[in-house]
Amino acid sequence: MTCLSYNFVFFGFVLFLRMPNIEKLALPIWCYQNEKSLRFAFSQWKNLKTLIIAHEHSFSGRFDFKAVGESCSNLTNLKYLGRLEEYTSREIVSYLHSLKRLSLRCFLVSSIAVYRFITGLPNLTILNVSHCKNPYDYFLPIAKSIDNYVITAATQKLEKFITCPHDCMICKDRCRYSLSYLAEVWRNDEIKELEF
Fold it and tell me: Which of 15, 91, 163, 172 is most buried by its number of CB atoms within 10 A?
């Protein structure tokens, strides 16, 4: 692990000094240290293009998207796993302007947050909301609960808006959000650049 040419690394804070040129990074739910260490780590990863975050506010607190946005101007791909709070969607829109591909696969997200991403991220071309559930609409799969204004905005702006089919077996099998389920599927994605 001493070679500086690795393009991908599974996150470990001891690696950030040895791996300044990583392009793809996965942050598991347990890895967050503190705001200062995250800010320093991201300041070292100027070439980061893809970030996969498993995040749960109750375990790890708030994630510092401002630090990512200030340091990682090449970041074009983001996958976020966990319940997406409204303030988190606002921070992503505020600080990650270069995002082209965003996957919110297999977690809780509101229609308002989906709309915010579509209209607020100027470079967004692909949005994946497969197997997501709306916590404000009786935990219905997001594809069944999305309002017409979201569909209209998506079809007018995005090259690709990915939802699961209405008869999706994954959504039927999962009655509610589950951390163990996320642990099993975080490597998969309908967006090629976000597969692990």
Answer: 163
Q: Which residues, 6+ apart, have CB-to-CB distance to 68 below 8 Å? A: 42, 51, 75, 95, 96
Instruction: Give the count of alpha carbons within 13 A of 146, CB side only.
Output: 28
The three-state (H, E, C) secondary structure of the chain, written as one string: CCCCCCCEEECCHHHCCCCCCCCEEEECCCCCCCHHHHHHHHHHCCCCCEEEEECCHHHHCCCCHHHHHHHCCCCCEEEEECCCCHHHHHHHHHHCCCCCEEECCCCECCHHHHHHHHHHCCCCCEEECCCCEECCCCCEEHHHHCCHHHHHHHHHHCCEEECCCCCCHHHHHCCCCCHHHHHHHCCCCCCHHHCC
Q: Which two tokens stand for residue 134?
A: 């709306």
Tracing tokens 């340091």 back to the chain, one arrives at 71
Structure tokens at 45: 């990863």
- d(Cα 79, Cα 186) in Å, to the nearest integer? 9
pLDDT digits (tens, 9 = 90+) for 22-75: 898 887 765 555 667 778 878 888 889 999 888 766 556 678 899 899 999 999
